[in-house]
Description:
Layout: E1 2-6, E2 9-16, H1 22-36, E3 41-51, H2 53-66, E4 70-73, H3 77-83, E5 93-95, E6 97-104, E7 109-116, E8 133-135, E9 141-144, H4 148-151, H5 153-157, H6 159-167
Parallel strand pairs: 2-3, 3-4, 4-5
Antiparallel strand pairs: 1-2, 6-7, 6-9, 8-9
Helix pairs in contact: 1-2
Amino acid sequence: MDAQRNGSTVFFSGILDEHTTAEALRKTMMEAMHSVQGRRLSLDLSEVRRANSVGILTWFRLLGDLAPCASYVNMPVWLVEQFNFSEGIRGDIDIESFQAPFYCPEKDTHAIVSLVVGRDVPIQAQYDDFEISLPNPDGTVFEADFEPSEYLYFLVVNHAKLKSLREG
């Protein structure tokens, strides 16, 4: 996996697996943390195509060691699914936006769309009755290709934390 810094954002790309070394990522993250001088760092993993369990463990250990004040931006589907299995996001890490799968039945097409927390998806304690669809410029509609109460569980688990970060 590769990491490139641009201002207050660190862009990650590639594959997060057993070949990913924490040291290479640590160097870029440390440089970025120093450059933002106490402001929130943005972590964009949208170009990380996939991750395996070893890579995810490396990632979580790195974040635990560095304890950055950060926000996930365009959090990919694989990371959303990983957080849906966990107890929540540790540390001072916010979720600004995440990717979600959508489907257009009229055109039989799929799309991955980035959704902004608080704008496209409200911060709620549950999503049992939540519905979301996105209009296309051509008049067709993309429907959520996920069950909101299951896919958005990572927001439920982090509900209090996300509210606190935005209010504080």
